[in-house]
Amino acid sequence: MTNDAKEGYGWSQKMSISLHDKLKKDLKEAMLQKEPEVRNTMRQIMAEFPKLTVPLILESGKKSTRLKKPAEITDDDILGIIKGLVKSEQTVLEFKKEETSEYLEILQSYLPATASREEIAAWIQANIDFSQYKNKMQAMGPVMKHFGKLADGKQVNQILKEWEL
Question: pTM of this prediction?
Answer without folding.
Answer: 0.72
